[in-house]
Design a protein that fits this description.
Elements (H helix, E strand, L loop, with lengths): L4 E7 L3 H11 L3 E2 L3 E3 L4 E7 L4 E7 L5 H8 L4 E9 L2 H10 L11 E2 L5 E5 L9 E5 L1
Parallel strand pairs: 1-5, 6-9
Antiparallel strand pairs: 1-6, 2-4, 3-4, 4-5, 7-8, 8-9
The chain binds cobalt (II) ion.
Length: about 130
């Protein structure tokens, strides 16, 4: 069902500092920041040869990243994203197997302009999993 690793997302308290860490210290290419109000985050993409890293900073009061950073003030790995061919088919198969889909269960448009869903971490080895249709 799942295909390639699309990205690993890391929550950071300070996106400028996170960008400097990846661009200047680690020598990677980092995109300009993009505000995603629907997801409560501002994001930059770190382009690596085989995948991407997303750095997420909270945007707005109800940001899910803000809660995460309360427990992880220095930042930390927030979720991993796997690619699927058909997100509705993947969702329905996972629901049949008893997995919980976060939110209302309907795909939203993610940072790459493609439909995404999030799966409950308690059903996936303690890891928040994002599925993205590519
Ligand atoms: Co993501």
């Amino acid at each position: 069902m799942i295909g390639r690793l699309n990205h690993v997302a890391i929550a950071v308290p300070d996106l400028e500092a996170g960008t400097a860490l990846y661009r200047d210290t680690l020598g990677a290419t980092v995109s300009a920041p993009q505000a995603l109000a629907e997801h409560g985050v501002t994001v930059v993409f770190v382009e690596l040869p085989n995948t991407k890293i997303e750095l997420l900073e909270p945007l707005g009061k109800d940001s899910p990243i803000a809660k995460f950073l309360t427990g992880n003030p220095a930042g930390g790995i927030h979720h991993i994203c796997y690619e699927v061919d058909d997100i509705l088919d993947a969702r329905d198969r996972l629901k049949e197997l008893g997995a919980r889909i976060l939110g209302d269960g309907e795909p939203k448009i993610g940072a790459h302009g493609k439909p995404v869903l999030f799966l409950h971490p308690k059903d996936f080895a303690g890891t928040l999993v994002e599925l993205e249709q590519v």
